[in-house]
Amino acid sequence: MDNKHWWRGAVIYQIYPRSFLDTDGDGVGDLPGIVDKLDYIASLGVDAIWISPFFKSPMADFGYDIADYRDVDPLFGTLSDFDRLLDKAHALGIKVMIDQVLSHCSVEHPWFKESRESRDNPKADWYVWADPKEDGTAPNNWMSLFGGVAWRWEPRREQYYLHNFLAAQPDLNFHNPEVRAATLDNVKFWLDRGVDGLRLDAINFCFHDRQLRDNPPKSKEKRVGRGFSADNPYAYQYHYHNNTQPENVAFLEELRTLMDRYPDVAALGEISSEDSLATTAEYVTDRRLHMGYSFELLTDDHSAAYIRGTVERLEAAMTEGWPCWAVSNHDVQRAVTRWGRNEPSAALAAQLVALVCSLRGSVCLYQGEELGLPEADVPYADLQDPYGKTFWPNFKGRDGCRTPMPWTTQDRAGFSAGRPWLPIPGEHRAMSVAMQEQDSSSVLSQVRRFLAWRRTQPALQVGAIAFFDAPEPILAFRRDHAGESRLVVFNLSAHPVRWPIPEGLSIQPIGGPGLASGELDAGQLQLPARGVYYARID
User: Fold this and answer.
1) d(C-alpha 517, C-alpha 418), whole Å
2) Do residues 97 and 51 make contact, with C-beta atoms less than 8 angstroms apart?
3) CA angle 444-199-213, nearest 5°?
4) CB neighbours of 30 closer than 8 A, spacing ≥ 6?
């Protein structure tokens, strides 16, 4: 596969619209707010934006429960606002990707309202309905990721419906060809409107096991999850039957056939399965998804061995696809807190951006990551996330990474004239865009310099990757493309380290990244705390 497509090696900036910028004073961000800040986004040096859902929704899961796939929720603006956003982004050279939540919708969607009324209406088989067991209990043992059983009783039909997430998010029945056709038609609506790509939420959840077989139990020591807490009963099972079914592959090929009718658009799949790397390799090919990412680098493990092992596993399995990497998003604790623990520093924040942007693949950077924002501590009284409310206090939910963007140091951080939907901590206001733009050594300034420099390095954008053997806490690899080779080294610790350059490796330092860098001394690379080093390999 060639490397000419815009999405190969692209840096994609994720916008969580509720928390980006509010222009009408209701305390919730909106599409005009994104339009207002597109010049700022362009100044970062990113290639594209991914906008989390802005469609009509009762907001049970803040937009990931869609009631109308083809319209903008009034909370966020209008279709005209979206068209204006699209036009300005394109004028600035920024591609626009939108979230598509295909596997489930809202209980307020007209399809579900019709389906729930009876067992013989035109939409009766558009959702996953099942009779109860003889004792009235749920059809099987499947669990919801948001806690509790994955089935909700519907008295009108005297049946249960499946919801892999909230009860307000019923799962569509993708075994029904009419559902697949209607879903693709909704996708076509946005492709016709001019979007450049889709981020496909929970894309491996579209199909379920037709036989509704029970999921097998998972032993206590193996109850670790990607994006959910270990005390969640969801972690008590192997999820072999409620997602990642073989029929999903054919649907992805249908989706790709549709997308191939449009010039150079891309589909990025979010994949979370029992073996997410293997599923990503299966789903991301030249006939299926263009890119895929999973939660492997969104965990607490940030050792060099873990990062290397994760990348090498995917590289070995993904023979023709293109990976995408992220260390932060709207569903997990912010990376500087998660990886820095008690030492979330500016050097770590800048290093994280450099690290994820130096791996082979495309990159998703989450809003605020360029500022080095730590996780916000949201008190229970201000909590909005239903996931956090269910599992408090062991798991505080996702609100801590969703607090509004701090544009200024003012009380409301320049985000809204009204009361923000989530509180903005004082430490975030002190790290605002306005403050950091005045400091040439700030995380924001470092990220801008780094991303500008990365654009001059084809090997870092699209080159092959191979790792060197190095002891903890050193992560070292090379990137090779079109006769150019780069050595990339990271010190993942908060103290200086030394690393002997491998015998026979001839290198020349290169300037430009604008980050805390190491120095070469008599064949030994000296790296400061959270240091990075780039060199040309001769």
Assistant:
1) 43
2) yes
3) 130
4) 17, 21, 22, 23, 24, 75, 76, 77, 81
So which residues are the catalytic ones?
A: 201, 270
Query: Is the pLDDT at 35 greater than 50, yes or no?
Result: yes
Segment 197-207 mean pLDDT: 98
Find the DSSP H helices in 284-359.
Answer: 304-317, 335-340, 346-356
Residue labelled with tokens 């909106």: 30
- Do the beta carbons of residue 291 and residue 266 sit within 8 Å? yes
Sheet arrangement for strand 159-162:
129-130, 159-162, 151-154
Contact indicator for 368, 405 with CB cutoff of 8 Å = yes
What are 456's two structure tokens? 């001059």
Mean pLDDT of 110-130: 98
Residue 498, strand partner residues? 526
User: Comparing C-alpha atoms, which of 45, 69, 96, 133 is closest to residue 448?
Assistant: 45
Length of the chain, please?
538
Torsion of CA 253, 255, 257, 263, to 10 degrees: -130
CB 399 within 8 A of CB 383: yes
> 502: exposed, middle or buried (C-beta count within 10 Å: 0-12, 13-18, 19+)?
middle
* pLDDT tens readout for residues 438-496: 999 999 999 999 999 999 999 999 999 999 999 999 999 999 999 999 999 999 999 99
